[in-house]
């Protein structure tokens, strides 16, 4: 399928989505929301795909929601369209999504990266929630997710001053999982995604679901959920195969069953 605002390609078992509005530094407009969600849903439905990477350009992952699309809208326009709620469909994607961030990840761009399962940053990455400088605030989860990633003090600092955080600070604060040289960013993200896609898909989905559950429930409930899912994994052929392969000192041959 052809998309207007993104490029998609399949690399082995990995789906690669590249945000592609270079003239607007990949500002997220409604078309891009539709395109990204449609591409994610297509990869979700594709049995040959085990993980997905979303990236942008070297200069910008995404410089925010498209200010030019938004600025004349009224309250009732935003409310009736439930503006930006279309991105929620991303949260229903069960396969892992890695954000590979080079350059600016600002406003909605930072929020999109945080909606992915983890972020690998190029050493030139810059994260920020500069909405305050525009007279608004984050609207795609920034005030909530950033706070959970980096804690209240830093999230307040970012949202109230609008300052940017570089890759080193982002890693130190827990916003990104690792920092790599910008020149190798996409390769490193693809390598991580290929590794994930080499494992048993049901086991991968259950791992993702369990980690996400920790954000939504109490520790006691989360631990109970984890134990029940862990027990259920002993119904998987891939569990037998993984453990047998370990004993036989050979590579496992997972069949996603
Ligand atoms: N929206 C639209 N166009 C943009 C955006 C954007 N967010 N960011 C950059 N552009 C455009 C510029 O207007 C410019 O276009 P043109 O050449 O036609 O003038 C082009 O991209 C290149 O940008 P610059 O010339 O500004 O490039 P610089 O290298 O000088 O600066 C910056 C790069 C620092 C990234 C600068 O472009 C900038 O500050 N951009 C805006 C960053 C920002 O404020 N982002 C937050 C946007 S608001 C938001 O994301 C809210 C999300 C939640 C909404 C929820 C609603 C319910």
From TrEMBL:
Keywords: Fatty acid metabolism, Lipid metabolism, Lyase. The lineage of its organism: Bacteria, Pseudomonadati, Pseudomonadota, Alphaproteobacteria, Hyphomicrobiales. PROSITE patterns: ENOYL_COA_HYDRATASE. Belongs to the enoyl-CoA hydratase/isomerase family. GO terms for molecular function: enoyl-CoA hydratase activity. It catalyses: a 4-saturated-(3S)-3-hydroxyacyl-CoA = a (3E)-enoyl-CoA + H2O; a (3S)-3-hydroxyacyl-CoA = a (2E)-enoyl-CoA + H2O. Could possibly oxidize fatty acids using specific components. It comes from Aquamicrobium aerolatum DSM 21857. GO terms for biological process: fatty acid beta-oxidation. This is enoyl-CoA hydratase. Pfam families: ECH_1. It comes from the Bacteria. Its EC number is 4.2.1.17.
């Amino acid at each position: 399928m052809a998309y207007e605002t993104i490029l998609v390609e399949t690399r082995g078992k990995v789906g690669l989505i590249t945000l592609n509005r270079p003239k607007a530094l990949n500002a997220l407009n409604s078309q891009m929301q539709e395109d990204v969600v449609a591409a994610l849903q297509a990869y979700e439905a594709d049995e040959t795909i085990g993980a997905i990477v979303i990236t942008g350009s070297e200069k910008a992952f995404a410089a925010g929601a498209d200010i030019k699309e938004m600025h004349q809208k009224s309250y009732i326009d935003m409310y009736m369209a439930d503006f930006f709620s279309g991105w929620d469909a991303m949260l229903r994607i069960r396969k892992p999504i890695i954000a590979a961030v080079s350059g600016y990840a600002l406003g909605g761009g930072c929020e999109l990266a945080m909606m992915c399962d983890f972020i690998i940053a190029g050493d030139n990455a810059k994260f920020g929630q500069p909405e305050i400088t525009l007279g608004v605030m984050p609207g795609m989860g920034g005030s909530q997710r950033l706070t959970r990633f980096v804690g209240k003090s830093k999230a307040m600092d970012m949202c109230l001053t609008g300052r940017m955080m570089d890759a080193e600070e982002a890693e130190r604060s827990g916003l990104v999982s690792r920092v790599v040289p910008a020149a190798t960013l996409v390769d490193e993200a693809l390598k991580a995604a290929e590794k994930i896609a080499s494992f048993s898909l049901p086991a991968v989905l259950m791992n993702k679901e369990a980690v996400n559950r920790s954000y939504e429930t109490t520790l006691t409930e989360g631990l109970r959920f984890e134990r029940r899912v862990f027990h259920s994994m002993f119904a998987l052929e891939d569990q037998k195969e993984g453990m047998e392969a370990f004993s036989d000192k050979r590579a496992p041959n997972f069949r996603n069953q």
